[in-house]
């Protein structure tokens, strides 16, 4: 989508508000010559938005954009340092002319590698190996073979497709599920029919009204007892109490969870201590250098914005995800 810098700026470049938490984007000033950067935290964002043309949402776990939206009097473009945009598709932004872009493409391979690592860890019982090592226990046992196991991956975007490719490479038979059928990809309406044969269910879909609570008690009952659930999408894809019940009752074999309904995961959550559960702190896409990659993507889009070229990763705000392959160079 072509969009160029407007007139509400100081000489040389647009005013950019940057929402951050404790840490600011690394070396952002090196990529933004001629612009005024207004760094703000959640409690100061409303004061940074008036007169700003662009907003870089570095703290993508915050709801501050929603609460400060009324102060965005000249905003034309919002870019988020995440693939998911569920915290940004609120009515004020969706109904406006403001363009929303995301960081699609940065996390695909890292997340696929992470999911492959989780699948291997679960099949080869690595958590128990490490626990027994810590106790100096020597207990021989058998583990599972992955070749021929079946994985159902929910999410037909770049991340889901990268996961499917990675799991196929280590020997699994993969069924990919997306919002609509595009053979060999299954439509979401076929998911229930795929679950009874799934050894691994991997959730990597964006959070939308259609995917919220996707894995509930009814869906969990369709999984076989040997199935493991892996969630690297959004916590709200899963009805967490239903998953806890299924794990506690032994109706599924385990889970590896990188995202949760409430983050950080509360210390009293039973998921922390369940024996067949791996908990990680929303880190599946975060490899060494990832923050610099996010800044580089924003900088590229800023250069496009300033020259009037189409932006990369324009989000369909009514659907909650990018629907095209992105802008050409």
Automatic annotation (TrEMBL):
GO terms for molecular function: NAD binding; oxidoreductase activity, acting on the CH-OH group of donors, NAD or NADP as acceptor. PANTHER family: 2-HACID_DH_C DOMAIN-CONTAINING PROTEIN, D-ISOMER SPECIFIC 2-HYDROXYACID DEHYDROGENASE NAD-BINDING DOMAIN-CONTAINING PROTEIN. Pfam families: 2-Hacid_dh, 2-Hacid_dh_C. It comes from the Bacteria. Keywords: NAD, Oxidoreductase. This is 2-hydroxyacid dehydrogenase. It comes from Pseudonocardia asaccharolytica DSM 44247 = NBRC 16224. Residues 33-315 form the D-isomer specific 2-hydroxyacid dehydrogenase catalytic domain. Belongs to the D-isomer specific 2-hydroxyacid dehydrogenase family. Residues 117-284 form the D-isomer specific 2-hydroxyacid dehydrogenase NAD-binding domain. The lineage of its organism: Bacteria, Bacillati, Actinomycetota, Actinomycetes, Pseudonocardiales.
């Amino acid at each position: 989508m072509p969009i160029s810098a407007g007139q509400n700026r100081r000489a040389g470049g647009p005013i950019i508000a940057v929402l951050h938490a404790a840490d600011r984007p690394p070396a952002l000033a090196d990529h933004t010559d001629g612009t005024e950067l207004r760094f703000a935290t959640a409690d100061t964002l409303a004061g940074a938005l008036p007169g700003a043309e662009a907003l870089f949402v570095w703290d993508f776990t915050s709801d501050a954009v929603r609460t400060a939206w009324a102060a965005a009097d000249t905003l034309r473009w919002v870019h988020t340092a995440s693939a998911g945009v569920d915290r940004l598709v609120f009515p004020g932004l969706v109904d406006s002319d403001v363009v929303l872009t995301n960081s699609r493409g940065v996390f695909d391979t890292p997340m696929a590698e992470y999911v492959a690592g989780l699948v291997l860890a679960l099949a080869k019982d690595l958590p128990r190996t490490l626990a027994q090592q810590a106790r100096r226990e020597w207990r021989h046992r058998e583990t599972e073979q992955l070749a021929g196991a079946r994985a159902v991956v929910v999410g037909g975007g770049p991340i889901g497709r990268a996961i499917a490719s990675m799991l196929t490479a280590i020997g699994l038979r993969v069924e990919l599920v997306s919002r609509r059928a595009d053979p060999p990809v299954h439509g979401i309406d076929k998911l229930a029919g795929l679950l009874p044969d799934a050894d691994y269910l991997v959730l990597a879909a964006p959070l939308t009204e259609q995917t919220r609570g996707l894995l509930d008690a009814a869906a969990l009952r369709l999984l076989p007892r040997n199935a493991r659930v892996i969630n690297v999408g959004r916590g709200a894809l899963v009805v967490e109490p239903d998953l806890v019940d299924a794990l506690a009752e032994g109706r599924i074999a385990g889970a590896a969870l990188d995202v949760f309904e409430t983050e950080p995961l509360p210390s009293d959550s039973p998921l922390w201590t369940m024996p067949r559960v791996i908990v990680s702190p929303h880190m599946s896409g975060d490899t060494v250098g990832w923050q610099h990659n996010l800044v580089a993507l924003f900088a590229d889009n800023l250069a496009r914005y300033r020259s009037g070229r189409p932006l990369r990763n324009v989000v369909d705000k009514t659907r909650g995800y990018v629907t095209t392959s992105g802008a050409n160079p």
